[in-house]
Predict the structure.
Amino acid sequence: MVRYVYDFAEGGRDLAGLLGGKGANLAEMTRLGLPVPPGFTVTTDACRAFLADGTEPAGLIREVSDHLTVLEEAAGRRLGQPDDPLLLSVRSGARFSMPGMMETILDVGLNDESVLGLAKVSGNDRFAWDSYRRLVQMFGSTVMGVDGSLFEDVLAGLKRERGAAGDLDLTAADLAGLVEAYQDLVRQETGEYFPQSPAEQLRRAVLAVFESWNGERARIYRRREHIPDDLGTAVNVQTMVFGNLGADSGSGVAFTRDPATGRPGLYGDYLANAQGEDVVAGIRNTVPLTALADMDPASFDALRSHMKTLETHYRDLCDIEFTIERGRLWMLQTRVGKRTAEAAFAIATELAEEGLITPDESLARVGGEGLARLMFPRFDTSAVGDALAHGLPASPGAAVGAAVFDSAEAVRRSAAGEKVVLVRQETTPDDLPGMIAAQAVLTSRGGKTSHAAVVARGMGRVCVCGAEEITVDTGARRFTVGSTVVEEGTVVSVDGSEGAVYLGAAPLVDSAVMRYFETGERSETLVEAVAGALERADGVRRLEVRANADNPEDAARARRFGAQGIGLCRTEHMFLGERRKLVEAMILASDEAERERALAALLPLQRRDFSGILEAMDGLPVTIRLIDPPLHEFLPDRTGLAVRIAAAEARGERPEAHETDLLDAVNRMHEENPMLGLRGVRLGLVVPGLVAMQVRAIAEAVVERTRAGGRPRAEIMVPLVGAVEELRIERAEVERVLAEVSEESGIPVRLPVGTMIELPRAALTAGRIAEEAEFFSFGTNDLTQTTWGFSRDDVEAEFFSAYLDKGIFATSPFETIDRDGVGRLVRIAVDEGRATRPGLKIGVCGEHGGDPESVHFFHAAGLDYVSCSPFRVPVARLEAGRAALPGTGTSDSR
C-alpha cells in the first residue's frame, strides 16, 4: 500500500523528491535537534494522485488523521479544542523552491468557539481575533475561491473608519467585527458558511494546496525556471507558533550570508508582533536582523548558533524562517538560499577557501548565465548627479525603463518592445508576469527577504526594495518623492547594486568583470572569484571553446576572452558596405570576362580580411566558411526597386538602366523560400569562379602570414551540404586552387576541408559525407529550422509565445538545443562520421554553442569544441568545465 504521510522525525533532505524541499529540510532540522514545531508532511505522491484523479487518494485522510492524533497526544491538546486549541499551519513545499507561488493557510483549527479559548489561554484577546481573521481571509481566498482583494477592501474600509494607520492600531473588538464581516463576505460570495469543523478545515486546506500546483502563477514560475510540471507539491502540516503575541514575539527571515553580495555575516529582516507572512509580504517595514540582538539577546544568540549549524551542515548559504513566541525561538524552515550571480561566485569561492566544499563543488555551484549577468554594464554614477531615492539593494545590476504601476501594463508595454520598470508598494505572487516582463522591480516597502527581493534574485532581475522616500499611488499611476512627481511612462534608472533610483536614462560603463576580460585587471574580490572559477573550468574541461568572428577586431577580442580559435568566420559579412557594388557587378555580369573582373576586384579585399583575422588568431585554428546566403541578399530590396522605377515612369522619366538591370536580376533570382534555395554549396556549384576566388584569397593570406613569420591555421568549411557528391565536387575545386597557390608561392598550402552539418539529410548520411570531410561543424540554427520546419525570423514572433504557454516548448529550440529531435541528429552524425573517419574533428558553431544547457549536451555527445559569439566565450568556458564534472546540472540554483 502506498504511504502518503511522514512525520518530521522520519525523513531527511535526501527525500526532497518525495517530501518536497520544505518537508525534507524540516525533517533534517528535526534530526539535527533544532527547535522545530512538530508536524508531518503529505507527500508529492499524494499530490500527483490527487491531480490525476481529481479526488483525494484512498487512505490519505485516514493517514492524516492518524498523524494528527500523534501530534495531539504529544501536545496535550486537540485540533480546535474549545478551551485550549491546537492550531496548525498548512504550507506548500515543492522539490524546487517556488517562493510565494503556491498557497499557505495559517491558524487552521480556529472557529467561533476556539477563538474564545485561545483568547483566554493566551491572555490576549487581540491576538486571538487577529489570528482568526487571518484564517478566514486565507481560507476564504485560497480554499473557497473568494477574490482576495475583497478582503483587503473590507480591511481598508475598517481602518479608514477607525482612523487607523495600520493593522496594529485596530483593537480586539475591531478585529472581532472584522471576522464577522469576513464571514459574511464568504457567505455572500460562495453561498456557504465558513466551516466551523477543524477537521474539515484541515482536509480542505491540504487539497487546496495540491490544487495550487496548477495555479496560473505557479505554472508561469515553473516555465520561467524550467521546473517540470509533473513533480507536484508536498504539504507540510505543522503546529502553529505565534509571532503576533506582543512585543516579546515576532517573526523573521535570515540568511547565513548576504544573498545579494555573498559577504559573510547575519543578514535578514525581523518584525516584532507579526506572523511570518507579514515579513515576506512587505506590508510593514522590517528592522535589520542585527536589531534583534538588542530586542531579545537570548533569542538572537540562539538563532546565530543555529544558523552556524545549518550552514556547516548544508555547506552553503542557508535561507531560514523563524518565529519567536514570547521569548522562545522556533525554526520554521530552511533551504539553500537563492542568490545573485555576484553572491554565487563569492560564496562558492569562500566556502572552498574555508574547506567546506571542494574546488570541483565550487565550480559546480556557479553558472554561465550568472557570469553573463556579471558582464552586463553598470551605471556611471559620477555622471548622473544625486539619486531620486534610495532603498535596499535587493538584486544587483543596472536597468532603465518606463515606470509602470501594475503587472498587466508591464506585460503590455514589454510585448510592444518597450523596456519597463515595475513600481509597486510591494509585490505579491500575482505580480509575477509583470516581474518577468520588467527590466527592474522597485518597491516602497519590504526588505531583502520580501517577495519582490526573493523572486527578483531568483530570476536575475534588478531590484530595489523598501525605498521609503517613494509614495506609490497605483490608482493615479504615479509615484512621488517630495515635490517630484513621476508619472507612468517616465523613464527611470534602477541601480540594484547600490539601491538607488535616478530620473531619466543613466549612462552605462563596463562592469569590473568585463574590464577583466578586456584588460586582465583583477583588482576586485568579485573579479578574483570569477577568474578563479574560469581557471578551474579551463583545467578540467574537455571541450575547446572557439568564437564566431568575422573581422580582426572581433577575433582579437575573442582571444582576450579566452577563445582557442575561430569556429566560424562568415565570409559573406565581408561583402557588405562599399563592397556590395562589386557583388552587384558579379551578379549583373553579362559574360564571363565581366564576372572575372568583379571577382578579381574582390580577391585582394578578401585576402586582406583573412590575413588580419589569421594574424589576430596566430597559432590557433580559424574555420572560414565559404559564402552561404543567397546572392540576392546583396541586391537592393525588390519592392523598393520596383517602386522607384514605377515612380520614375509615372513622372514620365526614363528609369536608370542600372536600376532596371538590378530589378531584372532580383526578379530572376527571386525565390519563394530562399533559405531552402540557391545558397551554400549550391552557389559554388552553379556560380563559376566564386569558390575559386574565396579559396585563393584564403590561401594567399596563409602564404602572406607564413612569410611574415606567423603560424596561420586556416580551415575551409563548405556550407549546406546535403549529399557527399556536392562536397566531393567542391572539394576538388578547393584542392585545385590550393595546389595553384602552392606552386605559385613555393610555400605548401595544405588546409583542412570540412563541412557544416545543418540539414537533416547531412546528419543522416554523415558516414558517407565523412569520406570527403576532414571535420564537421554543426550549424544548429539552420539544423533546428530544417528539422522543425520553422522559419526562425517568422515563427518566434508569430506563435512561439503560445507554444511556451501551452507547454509544447520549455524554452525556444533556437535558444537551447532540442535534445530529442535536433540532438538526436547530432548524435547520429557524430557516431556515423567517426565510424568512417575515427579522428574526425567535430564542433558546433550555431549560437547554441554559448547556451549553458546546450554546452552540457555537446559535451555528452562527444563534440570536440563549441563556438559562439566573443562575448559568450567566458560563459562557454565555464559551462564546458562544469559539464566535465560528474553529475553536474546546468544551473547554480533553482
